[in-house]
Amino acid sequence: MEDSLLKSLPWIPADDPAENYHAAAKLSPWVSESFSGPYAFELANDPEALAGFGVPSSIVGSAERHPLAPATEPTPVGTVLRDRQSVTGFGPSQVDFGQLSRILLDTACTSPAGRRGAPSAGALYPLDVYLCVCGVRGLASGIYSLDPFAAELNRLRIGKDPRTFLSETLLFQDLAESSAFHVFFIASFARQRIKYGQRSYRFTLLEAGHLAQAMIMSAQESGIASCPVGGFIDQEVDDLLCLDGVEQSVVYSVAFGTARRRDAA
Ligand SMILES: Cc1cc2nc3c(=O)[nH]c(=O)nc-3n(C[C@H](O)[C@H](O)[C@H](O)COP(=O)(O)O)c2cc1C
């Protein structure tokens, strides 16, 4: 169904919880509370404050303990997962267009059999992939959208320099200044809303995680470093791509590039 047809459907109330939450969770240059909670400083400066995070939160007691069976030979996927790490910045070398293509083909594009590398509730695919390309050998710098069916990138008629855009948009300048390309996941919420109602907002965010993880793993396997980035000024991205920020909006992003010498495994 055409997005324009979905947009004209009358079933989203004026005071919608999902739309309100999406707006409340946005980052802006002048409102940073949603990114810096009351204990942000303590967590950043006291590693011991993190002790205890990540343990199961249910208070139901243990009946008996079962240590996991020791791993035998590492599998290829297991090796990729074990070696994965988020980097804080990238090296000066460029990424090849072939490497970028492989990541997109493996994860976001439809295969000849009509499948994609990341799952989608109801196969409704609410996320589109846009890229800021700054340092890819064989592909001009610019802002691109991915056509997942044709498996091609379309350079958009946007005059903004992608590196300047990233610097103005990301909270983490090292990532903005050194990435080879940066992927933004853009949600068209109505595509899933039409089937799943309020639960669709969750699904869309979960799917951004699936897609990002798939790209991170594919990149890792090709020796490309990455960092998931939630620290971006939402409106900068939405404005660049002429999205209304309500029915269509950026939800997540990942920076990719070559490993710095000290980050290399
Ligand atoms: C949802 C999400 C958002 C993140 N946003 C940022 C970010 O904006 N900037 C950044 O430097 N790292 C970001 N990270 C990376 C985390 O800091 C990193 O995953 C964490 O330190 C654990 O390290 P590891 O990924 O190497 O295991 C993000 C990770 C996730 C899952």
From TrEMBL:
This is SagB-type dehydrogenase family enzyme. InterPro entries: Bacteriocin_Proc_Enz, Nitroreductase, Nitroreductase-like, SagB-type_dehydrogenase. PANTHER family: NITROREDUCTASE MJ1384-RELATED. Residues 81-257 form the Nitroreductase domain. Pfam families: Nitroreductase (PF00881). CDD domains: McbC_SagB-like_oxidoreductase. The lineage of its organism: Bacteria, Bacillati, Actinomycetota, Actinomycetes, Micrococcales. NCBIfam families: antibiot_sagB. It comes from the Bacteria.
